[in-house]
């Protein structure tokens, strides 16, 4: 059985390897940072709006505490404030990833292709029409955002528990939010291996949970920091390819043009 600590650190390493590779391609790095910059400005404005109105929102959500002793009222509303911020972070990070990947799709596909070719045995692009690919991507992104909404509600509900909610809420948000983030970030590399569904991504992620958490949790926290996310996002996309190769060591066979089999194990290929 693999050492969980070593696996977790290995997951952190995939993100660092993404940084290292893209630093050798500064023009592509800067191009890939542009969609993240645009999205960061939008989500930063939304988060500032939330913080400015946080007291009013929490007061509206907890009218039952108006007549309580000030100490208990403060504890409950403080816990709710922390849970609301943690849940909002979760939702915004996942939504930020979805919007940024949509906005910069061709750029991030190029980043994925660069890493695949750099590492060798590139499984190649998926032979799929643009409309089919777009429709599948939209469906899956909406499903991931919907799941993040459910987690946000759960984190917010936990926040009503004094003391416990202030600790459990943010931890739960980081773990579950990071996991959803990983499902989204792995899309491009998994698509190139003809693994097209969220279920397939989750199945492979579960085989090495500690390594996946080592990649997604730091990425989650770094993407939650305004403007640092601009630099982290391209590296996270590149790191997703390294992680995918850890989860799916060999690209599955798939029919190429004329029914030929492509991939590293194809007849005459590197794995033959």
TrEMBL record:
InterPro entries, A to Z: CysZ-like (IPR050480), CysZ/EI24 (IPR059112)
Origin superkingdom: Bacteria
Gene Ontology CC terms, in alphabetical order: plasma membrane
GO MF assignments: high-affinity sulfate:proton symporter activity
Keywords from the UniProt entry: Amino-acid biosynthesis, Cell inner membrane, Cell membrane, Membrane, Sulfate transport, Transmembrane, Transmembrane helix, Transport
Biological-process GO terms, alphabetical: cysteine biosynthetic process; sulfate assimilation
Membrane topology value: Multi-pass membrane protein
Residue stretches spanning the membrane: 28-55, 75-103, 141-165, 171-191, 212-243
Pfam annotation, one family: EI24
Keyword Oxidoreductase among record annotations: no
The protein's name: CysZ protein
